[in-house]
Amino acid sequence: MKDRKVPIMKTSAKSNLAHGEANAGMAGLVKCVLMLNHHSVPPNVHFYCLNPHVDMNGYPCQISGELLDLGSNTGYAGVSSFGFGGTNARADIWAKAHTGFRKVRQVDLNMLENVTVRCPKCLGSMEWKSSDAVPSRLPKPTGQGRRRAHCVRESDNYDFCSHCYDGSYLFGQPTPEDPMPAGTAYIKGSWTAFSEFEEMKVEEHL
């Protein structure tokens, strides 16, 4: 495992409940659900210092003896269970915080400027109802609430964004945008073990 900006929070239900035998895996799953519900990690009971024989080099995790805040209001948690008879299981869950100061609040949809989804063709962002492609530079909020569509498609096909739609319009036209916006783009990947960014070069096709 490579270095991470934020370490993996490591905990165990056994420090709270001891070994649950047949229900040990379920106890770990319930603990993960509770952690995501509050979006915090409870301490490992009676953990004060790491065994010097345990080598943590190259393993970016944190084993804490105190309550930790995860720093966001949504996230993932996973639990592994290894049975004595050789049966292994793994569960990964996602949830948003429902309790505490990181609780996800109710949103007034009438005051949202844009609700976006992914275009299934180009994977770009598009508005939820009008399917207009979301520009790289959003206009300043108007403060008047939900944004209204300014064009209507003739074929009534709103499956793809306006960049991928090649039909005509009954009313209005989508906002044109330069396909190559100004600015510098960077990328990193497995060829550098995700350690550093590299500038992407513009390649013009004839």
Automatic annotation (TrEMBL):
Residues 5-47 form the Beta-ketoacyl synthase C-terminal domain. One of its GO terms (molecular function) is fatty acid synthase activity. Signal peptide: none annotated. The keyword rRNA-binding does not apply. InterPro entries: Ketoacyl_synth_C, PKS_NRPS_Biosynth_Enz, Thiolase-like. It comes from the Eukaryota. Keywords: Phosphopantetheine, Phosphoprotein. Gene3D superfamilies: 3.40.47.10. GO terms for biological process: fatty acid biosynthetic process. This is PpsA protein.
